[in-house]
Amino acid sequence: MNNKINTGLLAYGMSGKVFHAPFISTHQGFNLKGIVERNHKSAQKDYPEIISYNSVDELLKDDSIDLVIINSPNNTHFEYAKQALRAGKHILVEKPFTATTVQAKEIFALAKSVGKKALVYQNRRYDSGFNAVKKVINSGKLGKLVEVHFRYDRYRNEISPKSFKEELVEATGLQYDLGPHLLDQAIALFGKPIKFNKILSKNRLNTKVDDYFAIQLTYPNELNVFLTASMLVADINNAFVINGMLGSFTKNHADVQEAQLLKGMKPTDEGYGIENSADAGQLTLVTDNGGRVVEIVASEKGDYAGIFEAIYQNINHNVPYPITENDILAQLEILES
Question: Is the dihedral of CA 45, 51, 57, 60 positive or negative?
């Protein structure tokens, strides 16, 4: 394989169009070779030089493809991952990696046996808000952490036309849709919890799958982490609340990358990933005399290009990938419970 990683996408819906193709096409270490488009052929309008494959099999038979991005429906990840690895491709799998830990272990073992990489796409580690949270926690200003809340809320009362999100198939429901984001952020910061508790509920009319979840993670030193997501929050408040012995930090979910990419902004454009200054986080610290000092904490730039740089470095130079196999297995253990 040459230094450029020839890459193929399994789909060109929102995930391919917004979260993958813009980064593959602008990173000098990748070449966007082709995209599977079974019905509507639209990718070449955006990327004239690519191949539009008619099927997954057609893409996998292309010997020039080095990396396959598996961004197909959740319940297809396991089978497509196996097919791609057996075809001699590295794989990058969208969240959720698989439906179960058994499936994940099989994929990781298969990748090792064929000498290929099996990587997981967890882009929310590169959100501006999460980077602000990580910076504040690592500063030690909050002292011993007591309670952490991460939320991912929206208001969508209707049943989605995307059947794989609404039907009773593998890896379905809100916990498999947004749970991987919140769990990965918690695991990235604090590791695997000692124990956990989970609540799922169904609230929308005629829903077959969960549209609300709350997960409580218990960590050493009396730290409790609460992860919540709902499809029925009309007034969305803070996405991040961290309480420590010396103060608190709060922050809304204001990462702009998805909105910018939907409008056609490129990751290399000026202003990409920069939050509105009004969405900065608030750090409240307790003074020695019991008073309060409030600091405004501007967010770090959000940049999903970071995960593609990590992919490039792992495949071409064997630099350790930040999302580890143990991270994913810990996540799936909670999701499948």
Answer: negative
Can 5-121 and 124-303 be said to share one CATH topology?
no
For 193-220, write each residue's pLDDT tens digit: 999 999 999 999 999 999 999 999 999 9
What are 9-51's pLDDT values in tens digits?
Answer: 999 999 999 999 999 999 999 999 999 998 888 999 999 999 9
> 5-121 belongs to which homologous superfamily?
NAD(P)-binding Rossmann-like Domain (3.40.50.720)
What residues pair up with 106 in beta bridges, in sequence order?
Answer: none
Query: Quick one: fold of 124-303?
Result: Dihydrodipicolinate Reductase; domain 2 (3.30.360)
> Could you read off the pLDDT of 46-91 as tens digits, one per residue?
999 999 999 999 999 999 999 999 999 999 999 999 999 999 999 9
- Report if pTM > 0.70: yes
Pairing of strands 281-286, 247-251: antiparallel
Q: How far apart are CA 59 and CA 68, in angstroms?
A: 9
With beta carbons less than 8 A apart as the criterion, state whether 70 and 93 touch.
yes
For residue 240, what is the DSSP state? E
pLDDT at 2: 57
Nearest to 221 by CA among 146, 136, 137, 150: 146
Which residues share a beta bridge with 240? 150, 251
312 CB-near residues (< 8 Å, 6+ apart): 5, 27, 29, 30
**Domain-wise residue ranges, the chain:** 5-121, 124-303
